[in-house]
Each structure stands twice: as C-alpha cells, then as structure tokens.
Amino acid sequence: MAVGATAAKLHLSSAAAAARRPSMLHLVAVAALCSLSYLLGIWHHGGFSAAPAAGAGAAVSIATAVSCASPTPTLSSSTPSTPAGPLDFAAHHTAEGMEEVEAAQRQRAYDACPAKYSEYTPCEDVERSLKFSRDRLVYRERHCPASDAERLRCLVPAPKGYRNPFPWPTSRDVAWFANVPHKELTVEKAVQNWIRVDGDKFRFPGGGTMFPRGAGAYIDDIGKIIPLHDGSIRTALDTGCGVASWGAYLLSRNILAMSFAPRDSHEAQVQFALERGVPAMIGVLASNRLTYPARSFDMAHCSRCLIPWQLYDGLYLIEIDRVLRPGGYWILSGPPINWKKHYKGWARTTEDLNEEQQAIEAVAKSLCWKKVKEAGDIAIWQKPTNHIHCKTMHKVIKSPRFCSSQNPDAAWYNKMEACITPLPEVSDIKEVAGGELKKWPERLTAVPPRIASGSIEGVTEEMFVEDTELWKKRVGHYKSVISQFSQKGRYRNLLDMNAKFGGFAAALVSDPVWVMNMVPTVGNSTTLGVIYERGLIGSYQDWCEGMSTYPRTYDLIHADSVFTLYNGRCEMENILLEMDRILRPEGTVIIRDDVDLLVKIKSIADGMRWNSQIVDHEDGPLVREKLLLVVKTYWTLGDNEQ
C-alpha cells in the first residue's frame, strides 16, 4: 500500500512539472514577440536605411594612432587621412540622449561671408569703432559685438588669388600681393624703405622710419649699448611696430618680440607682419592696460611710434614700466631724440622738441629709471631691479604715487592708472625683485620664479617639471599622427588657445615656428606671467570674444580643453567660427578634449569646409580624452563649392 501511494505521488509530481514546462508553441510565440519588439525599436530610431556614406554628417569616426596593419595615418591639406575604421559611437558615448544625436545629424552648412568682410576683425571693426570717443584713441581699442545679432554667422573668405605664404625665413623679406592687396604703405613709406611692390609680390627691405640703413644695422647700434647677445634679453615689446621689421630681425638674435599697432590709417601694417611670419597683434595704448601681466618684457621699444609719452601725467610710460621686468630697458628713437639734427625734417620748432624731451626725461626719472645712454638717434633707459631706493625717493617726490589696490597682472579691460606698479619686496638692495631669471635658453626649462616662490596658488615645482615632460610626449604624438608637423616650412605661425605654462610652445622651441600663447581669462590666468618668465610670449584672451588679429593669421591652432573650459559660457559655434576666421586656408587645427564634446564639435566643423577626424589619445583608446584633427580646405572669394 505504501509503495502504491509513493508511486502515485511521483506520478502527480511529474505531471505537475510537465504542466509547468513551456511548450514549443509558447517558445515560438515569445521569440516572435521579442523579434517584433526589436524591429519596432530599430524603425523608431531611424528606420532600415543603409549606413551613411563616407563623410556624411551622422558618421563620426575614430582612428587609432598606430595600426599593425597600416602605416601611421597622415593628415594633409590635399588628401585627408582615411580613418582606420568607421565607428559610430553616438549610441555608446553620448549621455544626453538620441535627441542631441538627431540634431547633430541635421548638419548646418555655413555660407561664405560677403567680400567686404575679407579682412574683418570683430573687436576692431572700423564702422563700430566710430561710435566711440576719439579722446586718447579710445575708439581704436577693443570694442566687440555687443550682442549675438551683431556676430557674423558665416565664413570669412580669403581674397581671390590667395596663396600659402612663403616659408620662413624667406617670408621675412617677401609676401604675396594677393594675400594683403594694399598699396597704401608702399606709397606713404616709399622713402623709408618699409615695403615695396615687385610684380605679384611685396618686398620688405628691412628699413624703417628711424633706421634707413636697415633694421639689422639699427639693432647692431642698440647692441653696442645694451647686451643683446648673451641671453639676458629674450622678450621684447615693440609699440607702434609698423610692418614689424625690428621684431623680424631680432629673431636671428634669439630675441622674441611682441609687436603691436592699431588698426588705423596705416592699412594692414600688422597683417603684413603676420604674413612675414613675425609675431604681432592689433593693439593700442589708449585707456586700457596692455593685455600682458606685470614684469613681462626684458625690453620695450618705440621707433617714431607717435605715442605721446609725456602727456596724461606720463600714463603711457607708466604702463610700459608695469610690463617691463626689473632691470628691463626702454628704447626710444625718433622725435624728440636728436632733435637738433632732425627738427627741420620733422617740421617742428626746437623749443617744442626740447620741451617734449625734457618732459619725457622727467617722467622717466619719476619712475626711478636710469638713463643708460643717448647715442645718435637712440636713447635708452633702464628700470631699477627693485624699488628700495625708489620708495625712499617717493617719500619726498609724491608723484606719481605707488599703486595700492590693483592686481598688477590684471589686464583684460582694466584701466591704466597714473601710479607706479610696485615690484615684489626684497630684503637686499642687490636682490632682483620677483626673482632673477636664468639666461636664454636655460630659462625655458628652469623653474620660473613665480612658481619657485609659491606665488601661483596650487602650483608646485614638481607640477611644472611634469608638465614640461608631458608636453614633450604630446607634441611627439602630434608629429606621429600629422606627418607635416615635422616638415620644415609647413607651419610658421602657431596659436595655443589655452597655453597654461607654455609647455606646447616649449616643446617646439627647436622648430622654425613661433607660438602665440593665449591664457583664457576665465581660467587660472596667473600662468601668463610664467610663460613670459620662460622666455615665451602671449596674451590674455576671452574666447567668447574675437581675437585682436587679422583673418588668416595662423598656420596651426592648438586647443587643449578649450571647449570644456567654455562649456556653458558661450556658444561652441562662435568659438569655432572665430578659429576659422584666424586660420589660414589649408591650415591645421588640433582640438584636445573629452570625446563627447569632440562629437559635437565635429558635427559643426563638418559644415565649415573643414576635413576632420578623431584620433586616440597618446595613451591609447581607453582614455576618454581624444584629439580632433582638422584641415581647413582651400577656397577663396568667388569659389562656389561648399
């Protein structure tokens, strides 16, 4: 009986298990429902169309820097690199959802601006400037578009016939006429040997208003008075630079000059300098401080720059004092220097010129400058290495006073004041305020005094050394993925949009290039002083605004984390359009940023006549930060291709 009961229980248990086991019909039904759900999902997110063609806006590709199966990719202006393999990572990396991807797919193609904007400078626009005061040349300062409605949403065209500039050093002496089609200076400055037309070219003989024997001979005369050859002078400032021949000829002496002049009646003088491959910016001494930190330049220069140094309580000479390093030199040639010889040619009275010189001498003395020498047409003063004696003297001479409140390095729309910027305190009369610099080239890699002294919060000597090594590695990686980077003459004018300590520029110091190191005002702008202490040059910049330079200034633009820095501050499109304005046709852009931002950037860039490609970080494909490499296509006024 027990055995039968047990058997019955087993039979019932088996029947129940069988009832719970799914039948073949159930399995088929579930599979059909899953397949239907999957197909509906695909249809909902784009249908069953074929994969996008190569170059389509929806496709974002990634290429590894090194492939076992193929050589290192090359990015060139004529034949863009082919990615190692297309990879649409919109669904894998985009956190904001499909709406953003779909918006990116609706790519905008940007039109060319009208011909009148070929030399457009948004913050020095001639028409806008006329709305501002002419007092002290305020109307020639930066006055950027006040609203988005004033911004150009188009691509600034190159003039018809534009050609790539001559490679350095040939470019120092010759440029294509079609690139800067202006003859005004060739007529106005004909007797001064600035520039002349030679067929389809401009020639730059190296002359200047006050150096008729040429810039080289003029610099040699300066070198007989102050040490230009021992590495103690590296950075220079040329105020009212003309076509920047002084800066051009200093380069062969390992001296790097920042040249500036306003956009004025001397049409395109800064543009000529940049075509020559010489560092220059649009700028003017008016009411705002120059866009450099205190103690930046080893010497400053004015050769008939027509700046009224003696007026406004010596305001402009006081600003030169702010940006000069302790022990730095100021060089003046032209009126009123050597007025006894030149007063007739200058069409001025001897009394007027003598009064002007005495007034300049008085301002220089009030700044505690020492007059080194006046020889012929050149006069040179030297700033003290510290302010121990100067502060003692100013207990008796009250004017100008020492500044008490302003940050000495603040120089982005900060107004000039008629007060002396105090040098850092010292304990001994022989000590150099702020720390003594090594001579060039040692100062490039030596720990800058601002860092060694702890003046920059959160930055240590170890961090600086590591940053220098990091950029050597990164520039090496750039050269491995852009073969033209190592090609002599391919690039000359470079821009680093977020320079930090200047590591990118330092890693390229042996190449025949120069780098304009921009430090964004929205970040840690205190590092621009470090860049100058290294013997490099640069400026403050807010990338929500235009840069004070002409279109087609740079051969290569480097943007490290710029779009992360400005995310939420201003439109990505505005920054990219400004980059396009200042980039030469067939120029290169390297954008280093988070991959999600690069996807968005690429969706805009592909509508700007740019060829672009995303490549891996130097540490491999698993790093979220990657590189977007860009080549701007060649097109000029009148071209119809988009």
UniProtKB/TrEMBL annotation:
EC number(s) on file: 2.1.1.-
Q: What is its main location?
A: endoplasmic reticulum
Q: Which InterPro entries match?
A: Put_SAM_MeTrfase (IPR004159), SAM-dependent_MTases_sf (IPR029063)
Q: Which GO terms describe its biological process?
A: methylation
Membrane disposition? Single-pass type II membrane protein
Can you say where in the cell this protein is located?
Endoplasmic reticulum membrane; Membrane
Question: Which keywords does this chain's UniProt record carry?
Answer: Glycoprotein, Membrane, Methyltransferase, Signal-anchor, Transferase, Transmembrane, Transmembrane helix
Where does it sit, as one GO cellular component term? endoplasmic reticulum membrane
Superkingdom classification of source:
Eukaryota
Return the similarity comment.
Belongs to the methyltransferase superfamily.
Q: What is this protein called?
A: Methyltransferase
Q: Which organism is it from?
A: Urochloa decumbens
Upper lineage = Eukaryota, Viridiplantae, Streptophyta, Embryophyta, Tracheophyta
